[in-house]
Amino acid sequence: MTARAILVGCAGLPEGDGDEAGAQRALAEVGVGTRWAVWDDPAEDFTDADLVILRATWDYSARRDAFLDWCASVPSLRNDVDVVRWNTDKTYLLDLENAGIPIVPTRLVAPGAEPEWPETEFVVKPSVGAGSRGAARFAAEERERARAHLRSLHAGGRSVLVQPYQRAVDAEGETALVFFGGGYSHAFTKGAMLTGAAVDESGLFVTEKLGVTRPESAYRALAEDVLDAVGGWFGAGRSGLLYARIDLVRTEDGTPAVLEVELAEPSLGFGQAGPGAAARFASAVRRDLRR
């Protein structure tokens, strides 16, 4: 009997951005049928599936409470609602720091507050956001412009993160390491995109320059440390995460640090990986279906 999985998008991207096409073929080859649905479509029955997989729900940041309520109502959601709730607010970075995981230095600025601004180039971003929307990069002397951006984000009631910009990103980008069912699959790079990069026509994400990479062992080790920490917090171990993307950057001292952990609805870079990545994803889905 063919298993049924729903891939979940949003009204602006009802069938994602096209990256999952190979994964759908790989799933079909192992007996898992798939279809797309929009998360907030009242006509959809998400109980009519063996697995519901968040893929391109990139409008959630404007309605996070409603999105989380929907997640809580969906049986067999992956990743599950507790993980999604934790991961859709970037204050999770402070949890990682408290657990001894190296992160890009991060200051959390509550609405109405103002940070001690970095003395170097820096980034200001909302704590709840997707697709790099609302993130902006400033030179050290651009504090007035940064202050205006901070206030515009605070006006929406959002806390804000301020982080020193890691200059190595200009040369080598971010390194995104992708895991399926807790096992490493592949990695890709994302170029610097906070200097006027265009927004996709859907309006849901900043367009990115992506590339193929083979990460250094220190990057693999750090990403796995993150997965072990998160898996421990949620009680299922790293194998309890159907998918994960860990975005790392090289810091000023040459070591990697966590920029973001993507466990809710990340692009998984199938287009930057060989065909084996789609097969690995399909295998992870089949394992999950037997849980």
From TrEMBL:
- Report which superkingdom the organism of origin falls in: Bacteria
Q: Which UniProt keywords apply?
A: ATP-binding, Nucleotide-binding
Q: Which GO terms describe its molecular function?
A: ATP binding; metal ion binding
Q: Which residues form the ATP-grasp domain?
A: 93-290
Per its UniProt record, what InterPro entries does this chain match? ATP-grasp (IPR011761), DcsG_Biosynth_Enzyme (IPR053191)
Q: Which PANTHER family match?
A: GLUTATHIONE SYNTHETASE, PTHR39217
Q: What is this protein called?
A: ATP-grasp domain-containing protein
Q: Which organism is it from?
A: Prauserella flavalba
